[in-house]
Design a protein that fits this description.
The chain is 31% helix and 24% strand. It is of the alpha/beta class.
Amino acid sequence: MIHTTNSDILFLKQEEVIQAGLLDMKQILEVTEKTYSLLGQGEIQNPPKLRTLIPNDQIHWKSFFNAMPAYIGGDVHISGVKWAAESKKNALTPGIPYGIDIIILSDPETVLPFCILDGTLITAMRTSAVAGVFAKYTAPKNTQTATFVGAGVIGRTMLLAMNEALPTLKTIYLADLDLSKAEALAKEYQDQIKAEIIPTSDSKASALKSEFIVTQTTASEPFIDKSWIHQGITLINMASNEVHIDVVEEMDGYFVDYWKQMITYKGKVITQMYEKG
């Protein structure tokens, strides 16, 4: 196991990862913030992910595979790699996740693998925890009204993340083009969330009434323009193709989670601005 010459490998399926505490969003937010702290201290090696697109088209891919190696130093001292894949076909196939991930953890000294575990739900929790950490430091003080765009898997974990990160929230507009998805998710999670969850299919109208917006969609084309934005708002954009360049140009500040990785995404607005100088 870890930090020994024992070559045993622990295999954890998703149910066992959940039993280990994965759905405790408060804990996941703390771990995520600690990870960013270690990254800022130079304790983490996290090279940009290697992406294989099928077909090899930045816009019109049907599936992709990411190889994501990392070493976390400090008091963690673990190496690992995530094999992360997504399929657009899965979005239309009931009963199968849009993204499917596997993680291998290794001892950094002996390089022996000590754990192979399901990473699909880990990814969903971590993705929203990243947004939660950003919201903690960038959302307007005492934010009461927010719009969440997208009621898929990340929409679920985003409700949990913002419930912890923004304790002053009183109203959440949960927007999705498929209103029935937003209604079902709101009904499922209302008892767990302090704020009132209001399902809607009109994300722009909701955004104009909000102090905070977070988007987590599978959009292939930008749909948010500057007419959505008003003074003092914070917008957290979790996917690649959600905002037009005029939205970013209107903002007073830009924050990204990992610059070296961000500028490898050719489609992202922030990358387009970077490439233009």
